[in-house]
Amino acid sequence: MSSKKYWLWLTGRKGLAGTHLCRVLDHFGSAERAYFADPEEYRLVDGLPAQALASLEDKQLDGAERILEQCDRLYLHVLTRQDADYPERLRQLPDGPAVLYYKGKLPAFDDEMAVAVVGSREATEYGRSVAARFGLELTRAGALVVSGIAQGVDTAAVKGALQAGGPVVSVLGGGIDVPYPRENRFLYQDVAAAGALISEYPPGTEPRSGHFPIRNRIISGLSLGVLVVEAAERSGALITARLAADQGRDVFAIPGGIDAPLSRGTNLLIQEGAMLARRPSDILRCYEMRWPGRLRSGPPLDGEESRARVEQAVQDLPAPPPSGEEKIDTGENRAYISLREQPELFTDDELAILSAAAETALTADELIDRTQIPARRVLSALTMLQVNGHVEELNGRRFRALVLLKD
To answer: Nearest to residue 347, comparing CAs of 75, 15, 67?
Structure first.
């Protein structure tokens, strides 16, 4: 446990997150070596902002030790990228989390046929029933369901998996000890008992709107494929689907009526090449050959029992609040941001992308061509710009800057 404090110290540095954090780890090899490095060594890491450099020189470990004490008190486990049971699926990501906190029993994700089920918080009755059914039947067949634990689709999918008696994993946008929504606090307990609650945020962290899109890369990263049940055209679920595609994961979508607002996103995904899923077997068939022997062939539920379990899963779901956790408010008008007043707000890659996409919407390939930045870095920067509401995605996977830069 002693070495973990250095990882918590590193992840607590201001101005050091995402690709910047990964660059530090790539350079030094471990958090402990980064901690004991001399200040001049930090300046050898490419592209670190001034705030991160100053924060790295602060060697106080009080905060890290306090977090470890909280984890002991709350029975939370700390998993770092140097640990043997850290999922290789996340280790391969360019922006994989350096630290994960979890409660419950962590599955061996690299050996699991994990399928993420995501969608709108404001799901319709149709969406909730579909999510519960897929959660139920995927779990019964031997898949591991991964989701969030927000209202709507997430909660329905998780409850469906629990109805099947199998493990389920929920990835959170805040500390594990801060249930959100509050109505799901008992569901938190059920998930921890049957599977695991996972977060990259330390205990006591309040959920914030910006945390959820960032969290979504973990949901997709842990999974072989992502199923989007219902989603508006601009939603956190679609960000998860885009991340899944960029990570090389399969993307599935539930079709819906052409005039249904929460089916516009899923229908768009299908139009762009996502696999249409009408029933759980459409997903399971994709993995039968890749994961021989993993699927269970137990007696099927008859129609009445299946309906009863789905109804049990979706009953008493909490109503969505007036404003949502996963909505990204980008606004109608573009704002000006002064680089003189906020010099550390954007990375160099983000600045180049914002400049290129200021006048016209561009595809990722066009941005790569115009900025001459490697594809992996462009995709990573685009994700963070979307998360923070500085870029919007239009039809045809074109991106447009929502802010204008001034000196």
So the answer is: 15
